[in-house]
């Protein structure tokens, strides 16, 4: 088995050569994570592509993992850089969204199939041309709410799990089980990282671990000797090294957006920090709200949210906060309805530090149900918006 770097170098070189010549009889399998380009998406795409390439018997098939963010944006994800380094993966060998012209691939290759990991609905840039890319989606592995899209002819695995990397790992169990190949050590370090992070190190009290996560971790640990607690803590330390980022970069580093069935565009920025620390850095809350308004303008959002997740030792342990900003007056009732919900358990924060003269409705909460990550919060916000009476945007 070739190393991860050898595989990445070969795959990227192969696609660049095909684009240069203008045509190829090869069958391209393009594996892409979601638009946030987080650790789980990166690891899922690389793991799937690498192990699929190893299994393939057809020399004309080749697998290209796509890190669906611009190359320069990897610096916004210090935990990803840390894990890639620990896994001996050269970031320069990755294919980013701006590495090649993705729009020409379907014209260059005789056959192209799009594999979605860590999402099950086309994201940018593919969503900008649904007519072109939707028929090419042939496989999905994901752990989010099923959008019931696309006729996936190869495989379709959409089920709850802490991490998509767990499902990708188990999809290739036949390669991993019992293998003695030393090259799998780097792959195991890569795939383990998001599973540990997303499941909070498999700690059951957070209710973010499934049997698939445990099974995947046990499978990967056959190929690497490391202390899970130390690895998890080191990744968390790297993930928290974001205090130097400006407000816009904090909002876009782990960002996802959706559109509700009644036409409203919603965006959620996940930030591994606590609001008070962010506010104290900027010296006031108003600058954060201004940055969120500017980001909402840039993304043309009807409502924008910041989800924080942090663990302050000796100060309450793992916690979550949620900030909601309503930009469309038709949605002015959403913040109150969200607060009334008993599942998410939002406690309004009214400290002086959160006071600002916002022209748009704004709320800051402590999210007492810490088991709800963005995977659960987005469907909740969407259903709340769609439950408002007489609020169609279109």
Automatic annotation (TrEMBL):
UniProt cofactor(s): Mn(2+)
Keywords from the UniProt entry: Hydrolase, Manganese, Metal-binding
Pfam families: DHH, DHHA2
This protein's record includes keyword Manganese: yes
Keyword Nucleus: no
Domain of life of the source: Eukaryota
GO MF term list: exopolyphosphatase activity; metal ion binding
An annotated GO cellular component: cytoplasm
Transmembrane segments: none
Domain DHHA2: 232-385
PANTHER family membership: BNIP - RELATED, EG:152A3.5 PROTEIN (FBGN0003116_PN PROTEIN)
Designated name of the protein: DHHA2 domain-containing protein
Species of the source: Umbelopsis vinacea
Species lineage: Eukaryota, Fungi, Fungi incertae sedis, Mucoromycota, Mucoromycotina
């Amino acid at each position: 088995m070739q190393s991860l770097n050898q595989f990445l170098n070969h795959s990227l070189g192969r696609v660049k050569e095909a684009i240069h010549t203008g045509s190829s009889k090869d069958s391209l399998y393009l594996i892409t994570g979601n638009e946030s380009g987080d650790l789980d998406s990166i690891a899922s795409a690389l793991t799937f592509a690498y192990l699929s390439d190893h299994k393939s018997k057809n020399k004309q098939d080749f697998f290209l993992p796509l890190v669906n963010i611009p190359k320069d944006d990897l610096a916004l994800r210090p935990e990803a850089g840390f894990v890639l380094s620990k896994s001996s993966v050269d970031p320069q060998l990755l294919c980013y969204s701006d590495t090649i012209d993705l729009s020409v691939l379907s014209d260059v290759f005789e056959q192209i199939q799009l594999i979605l990991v860590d999402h099950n609905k086309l994201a940018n840039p593919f969503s900008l041309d649904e007519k072109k890319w939707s028929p090419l989606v042939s496989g999905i592995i994901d752990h989010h709410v099923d959008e019931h899209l696309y006729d996936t002819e190869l495989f379709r695995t959409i089920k709850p799990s802490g991490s998509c990397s767990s499902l990708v790992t188990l999809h290739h169990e036949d390669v991993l089980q019992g293998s003695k190949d030393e090259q799998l050590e780097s792959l195991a370090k890569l795939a383990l990282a998001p599973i540990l992070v997303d499941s909070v190190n498999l700690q059951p009290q957070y209710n973010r671990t499934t049997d698939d996560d445990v099974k995947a971790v046990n499978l990967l640990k056959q190929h690497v000797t490391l202390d899970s607690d130390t690895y998890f803590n080191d990744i968390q330390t790297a993930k928290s090294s974001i205090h130097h980022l400006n407000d816009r970069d904090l909002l876009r580093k782990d960002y996802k957006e959706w559109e509700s069935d009644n036409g409203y565009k919603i965006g959620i920025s996940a930030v591994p920090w606590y609001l008070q620390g962010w506010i104290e850095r900027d010296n006031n809350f108003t600058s954060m709200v201004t940055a969120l308004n500017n980001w909402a303008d840039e993304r043309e959002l009807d409502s924008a949210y910041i989800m924080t997740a942090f663990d302050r030792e000796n100060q309450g342990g793992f916690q979550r906060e949620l900030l909601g900003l309503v930009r469309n007056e038709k949605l002015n009732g959403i913040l109150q309805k969200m607060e009334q919900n008993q599942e998410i358990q939002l406690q309004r924060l009214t400290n002086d530090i959160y006071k600002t003269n916002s022209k748009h409705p704004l709320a800051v909460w402590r999210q007492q149900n810490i088991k709800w990550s963005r995977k659960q919060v987005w469907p909740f916000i969407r259903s709340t918006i769609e439950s408002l009476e007489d609020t169609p945007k279109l």
